[in-house]
Structures are given as C-alpha cells and as structure tokens.
Amino acid sequence: MQTNTLVVRFGSLGDVILTSATVLSLKIAYPGSRLTYLTKERFRSVVEMFDGVDKVVTVSEHASTRDLIRILLDLDNCRFDRVVDLHGNFRSWLARSIITANHTVIYPKRRVERWRMTLKRKTLPSEYPHTIDLYNQAISALDKRAVCRRPVMYPPALDEQFDRLLATDRPIVVIAPGAAYPNKAWPIERFMQVARGLCEDNGVRVLFAVTSDDPNCQILNSGANTSDLLTLTDCPLDQLAAIVIRAKLVVANDSGVAHLASAVGTPTLAIFGPTHPALGFAPRGLRDRVVEVDEPCRPCSRHGRKLCYRDERYCFTRITTENVLEQAAEILEVSITLTPALFVDRDGTVIENKHYLADPDGVELIEGAASVLKQARESGYKIVVVSNQSGVARGYYSINDVERVNARMLELLAAEGATVDAVYYCPHHEREGRVKQFRVACDCRKPGSGMGEAAALDLGINLRESIVVGDSLADINLGRVLGARPILIRTGHGSKAQFEAGDELERLGITVVDTIGETLSCLSLKN
Prior knowledge:
Elements: E1 4-8, H1 13-29, E2 34-40, H2 44-47, E3 55-59, H3 65-76, E4 82-85, H4 90-98, E5 103-106, H5 111-118, H6 131-140, H7 160-163, E6 172-176, H8 188-202, E7 205-210, H9 216-223, E8 229-233, H10 237-244, E9 249-253, H11 256-263, E10 268-271, E11 289-291, H12 314-317, H13 321-335, E12 341-344, H14 369-378, E13 382-388, H15 391-394, H16 399-415, E14 422-426, H17 450-459, E15 467-470, H18 473-482, E16 485-489, H19 494-501, H20 504-508, E17 511-513
Parallel strand pairs: 1-2, 1-4, 2-3, 4-5, 6-7, 6-9, 7-8, 9-10, 10-11, 12-13, 12-15, 13-14, 15-16, 16-17
Helix pairs in contact: 1-6, 1-11, 3-4, 8-13
C-alpha cells in the first residue's frame, strides 16, 4: 500500500539543498511511498533535482499567511501519513498544525546552543553535529535508518549556450564570490587573485558565478573576461548545477553555491569568516574543505548578517590569497586524477549465492563475471567488491571465514585474467546480530555509504562517474546514496528484488539486466 510523506523546508538555498540527504533516506526507508516537498517558489528547480521527490508544492515569495493556509488546506486533502518538518519556523508550524497525519516529526534546531555560541560567545564544543545529522534525527524519530549523510542532486542536461563555455581541454574551476550578506563575503580582489593564480599555476579556466544584483558583478565584468577568466551572470540554479558537476573545483564563501557543489559531487573549498562550521552548515562533500582562521569573536552571528564591530574583518583579512591558493591546488591535484569505478556486489553478482557461504570450496564464479570485470578494468574503471556479510554478526561464521571466501573468489577471478582493486565488506547487523562486537549501528552496511566512500578515498574514485551493480535493493540504494549509477541484475536475489519493488525501479529510471554481461553496454568504454 502506497504511503504519503510531506517534507517542509521553505529556505534558504543552502538549507534546502542539505535536506536532499534526508529526502533520499526517507524515500529508501519507505519504498514505494509518494513524497511531496513544500518550499518557496524560487527553490523549485533545486528540489526538482533531488532523488526521491515526486511532487513539489511551492509558496510564492510574497505570499500572505492566508495564502499559505489555503495551500496547506489543499495539501491536507492528500491524506499524508507523515509530515517531516525540516524548518522549525512559524510557517512550518502552521503546516504541522493544519495537515492531518499519523506521524508528525520536527528536526532539533539547536536554537539555545547556537545562541550560546554566537551571542554569549561560549567556548565552542569539541564536537558538533552537522545540520544533515540533525535533519536525519527526524527519520530516527520515525524509527527508521537514515542511510544518506551527504547532499545528493542530479542536474538536468546543460543548455547549449552554457555548454560552449565548457568547450575546453583545461580543467574548469567555478568561483562564487557572493554571499547572502556582504559581511559573509571574502574580498572580491582576493577571489580575483586566486583565479589568476589558478590559471597561471594550474592551467585551468575559471568561471565566476554571480548575480546581477551582486556588487561584485561590475568589478568582474570589467576585470575578469578573458580566455581564462569568464563571468557567468544570473545563471539559473539548475543550469549552474549542470556546469558545476563538470568542474574540478568550486571556491566559494559560506553560501548556497558551496552546498550546491557538494550535492553534485564537485570538491568545494569554502571560505568561512564570521560564521563557523560549529553552527552545522559547512559543506559536506567527501573532499570538501573549509578555510578559516581562529578569532575570539567567531562566530559573531548565526548567519553572518551582523556587521563587524572591530576595525577590520580579521576573520577574513587574515585568510590570505596564498593559503586559499595552496589548498585549492591540493584539491585540484586529486580531483583531476579521479577515475570511475565499477562497484559490484559479491554473492549473487560475482559468485553464486549459496546463503551465508563460509566454505571457500563452495565459491563458484557466475558465468561472465570475470569477463565483465576484466573489460571494465581495461576501460579505465577501478573494480571494487562491496558486500554485506551480516553472517558474522549473526554468528554463522567468522571474519576469517569471510576473508578465506574472498581470497578464493579473487583467485578464481585472477585465473580468468580479472583483477580486483579492493574488497570491502560489512560484518555488522544492529538489530539481528547475536555477536555483541558486531551488533552495532554502522555506516558501512549497504545501503549505507561507508564502504563506497572508503573505496573512493582509498583508490581515488569519482563516485559520480561510477556504477554500482548488484542483485538487491540495498545495492540499488547504495548507488543512489553515493550519487553513482545503480544497475540491478536478475541473478541471485535480483528477480525477487525487482518483483518487490514493483514499478518503482522503472519510475526511478533504474536499469535492470538479466546477466552481468549486459552491464558492459552501460559502461563508458574507452578502448
């Protein structure tokens, strides 16, 4: 039976983007459910890039409370099973009050803690939750697992006019010097120095992304329009996302564009001045970094709106161009060399599924598996096996047994000329484990992202260009959480998984194939 979920978040840009992780987790937690997202009209195109949103309902920028109530009364006719409030303001309270639902949850906003950090200037905590973690606590309140911990968005195709800007053999770097408030913006002159330094030392092309109402726009138009430095003004957000996903690096202030870059998988260098990561809004991509300096007055406000009371903005002026250039170059060096990977499940995909296999003598390769892995590797893909092995937690076999089975699999693959770069497995199961050591909540159990992200960092993998192949919905959802392309194979438990999913896979555009050999047509073969 289909259930209905309403997610509420009105703004701002960065906050909306960060909810994409929770939206995907909700969709995975309630397979086949219909998810509606309520937001402001100017963020429609952003939410439409989320994985898991079936319908976007918007409120105009100047809507009155009466207008909002009318929209909420219409939504109440949808008979939602759950309302998830990821905003926590008066308007979202109205939504929770007017819309009838079996379950209503709100994320913990940390108002008092943030007030103490900014207005009272208490000592910053040694550990602090990211806003995505707080959003995901709303899922925990529904007794569900939040498997997605990073923002995920899928941009549309790039319009021809913007595609021409990227027609170069040089790496693209996007610089976004704007911010919601002038006090949050690093000086534009320094951004331009960084841009010129990257062009000269790293051979990149820089695109400045600005809006026409940005005071930096006129400066950039007069000083940053050459073959190396181009200014992009008032680019629609969905097209900006489509540009950013093809860039190797984004340099930005603490702004919505920094989160947009993270959500499409582009490494981001964010410059934080009056705000602070302790407030929970640092970009959270796998390779993102924050540039900041310690000042006793930081953070001076929650959103960076408050004007500086000192003789100069030391939180920014002490961030040097050389420091930003050095860190940007380090990120670029890695980003340029990233390669795609073929992530494959073990049991039912590479070897025959024999139900909690513990004996290496029972390992049998699935026909065609070795050939696929060999050809994928020859075409530039890293080969990574990712496997849930909850039999360890259940007490059916030991870690040593898993290692012996994996070793036998690798031996058989090597005999057919197929080499695997790495094998990762998760021995945990929080609810059904009988071995205390492994009965824990973890990030590695599929569809959690732990194994995929570990491989990405260990092997230099571009997850957005990667493919995840497996015979279960956990494999499919792992691909979605990583931002990779998932493929369901009907071997092993695949046919059963397809039946259980109904028309959901088709609606999501998930590729389903009969044999692992058919996945070759999905790879971008280079040879």
